[in-house]
Write a structure and sequence with these properties.
The structure holds 2 protein chains of 2 kinds.
Chain A: H1 7-16, E1 27-30, H2 33-45, E2 52-53, E3 58-60, E4 76-79, H3 82-91, E5 94-98, E6 102-103, E7 109-110, E8 113-114, E9 122-123, H4 130-136, E10 138-143, E11 179-185, E12 188-191, E13 200-204, H5 210-215, H6 235-244
Parallel strand pairs in A: 1-5, 5-10, 10-11
Antiparallel strand pairs in A: 2-3, 3-4, 6-7, 8-9, 11-12, 12-13
Helix pairs in contact in A: 1-2, 2-6
Chain B: H1 12-17, E1 24-27, H2 37-45, E2 51-55, H3 59-66, E3 70-75, H4 87-94, E4 99-102, H5 105-116, E5 121-124, H6 131-135, E6 140-143, E7 150-155, E8 159-169, E9 175-176, H7 185-191, E10 192-202, H8 211-214, E11 224-229, H9 247-254, H10 261-269, H11 274-277, H12 281-285
Parallel strand pairs in B: 1-2, 1-8, 2-3, 3-4, 8-10, 10-11
Antiparallel strand pairs in B: 5-7, 6-7, 8-9
The chains are: A alpha/beta, B alpha/beta.
Chain lengths: 264, 292
Amino acid sequence: MSTDYTLAELAIVAASEIFRDETPEVFATLIGTLPKLAGYVAKETFLPGMMMSDGIYYLAAEPVPVGPRGDYPVKKEGRIGYERVFTVIAKGNRHAFVGPVQVDKYGQMNLSCIGDYAAPKVTMLGVRGLPGNTVNNRTSMFFASHNKRALVADEVDMVSGAGYNPARYPNENYPRGLDHRQIITNLCVLDFEGPDHAIRVRSLHPGVSFEEVQDNTGFDLVRPDDIPTTAAPTQSQLDIISKWDPKNLRAYIFKDNPPGVRAS
Amino acid sequence: MSQAVLDKCMSAADIVGQLHDGMTLGIGGWGARQKPMALIREIVKSDLRDLTIVSYGGCDVGMLASARKIKKLVFSFVSLDAIPLEAHFRRARSAGEFEVMEIDEGMFQLGLKAAAQNLDFLPCIAGLGTDVMTYNPDIKTIKSPYSDDHYVAMPAIKLDVALCHVSEADQRGNSWIGGPDMFFDEWFCRAADKAYLTCERLVETSAFNDDHKILRMPIERNLVAGVAEVPFGAHPTSCGPDYGFDVAHLKAYSATAKEGWEGYVSEFIKADDYVKSVGGADHIRSLALPAF
């Protein structure tokens, strides 16, 4: 184990584990620096068959370095334009690793707006593909700042991504594709393995207590008897990360790029 | 026997002259990519009003919003790709300046595909469990006649007119999309009563006598009512493989959301020579293609 790693590197490696139980040739959609690098670690360690896009149009035969790629030639193995993406989503063998603005106790996500819907206080992107992703595909989430504005009390302002809220479905039946996996934050890893898919603390990053996580969460978290500490990255995992992030964009994932183990 | 019009050439202003107040317009492209911006600029300059705009939105939506042309917006997102949030859209949406129908990206294409096939709806499960259903009470669910499943019955999105920008077209309305992703231009054209295209280059029909090109020709000519040659007609959005999006221009445009929109209109949209006003043909050709 390396002891010299950043919180970003710790969280990337923790996030790579969301793919541990995936199908051998899952199509992973990786949006943002941390999700991409997490997917790359999974692909280069335990999930070589993972499929991914170049973010534009092509299926990439190997990871594409994060950040502006300049003249870097993508190694193509197929095409995955948007029309095909929607077909792939509906078929189901996909894991979307996304960064919504809010999530609630049901795992419902918001990417649309905050405040009155007719004239929102804050207008964001729009629901994008979240409604379709969440009822068809495995979904994991990343929040760079774990706080009560992001992990909210009650329901999110505009439910853009579906969750485990039975009142919102015909006959209270969840769609068969609804399958939320994990939430990675700057404090911990959460999953949906509590009673009735309640959100549970899966691991705490080094130096973080359950109480700190709960104090920064708008809903009650399930607390297992023993909560492991998020595993430290290995040198080979760190090498994979730096290979695909040569410009060190991971230094900007978390504010002030803190170390993986908090100074005591 | 009616005689087909096989010379469909017109100007961008002629195309916009075919539009009327209150129409539903579908805009091709995606975000900051392959948008028919020359036509959007003509609409901004026109007296048109009360439009329903259907778009995988970028600065097309932002400009029409700041020009107060939109009565209702049908959308999944509005983004400039390199600049994730569209400042003009955000300002107008937060001010409640237009109605919205906000739907999942997959629902959006199904709505176009339903209209294209003269169907009332197509089923999907996207939308279930979300506020897309809350805020669009006209979108109904149905029970499957074959099982106990429930589906969203995504209603047809019928368009009066589709507007798209392509790489090459001939005077008959045949067209070739050179960028990697053809997006949903085909389905906008099929969902519409009439489609109009702008193109980077007007070519002879013989240019399409090419097995490689034919793979990127999703719009057959009898869908197309008019064609205008407008080099760099997608700027400041991208038109692969010829040019990428103009991030510096998009930043300057974004900064006019709060103040300075009128200046943007007079400096660029109403410029006598648009290409020259934004830095010239060589500048646009040098813009890097989207990559992230």
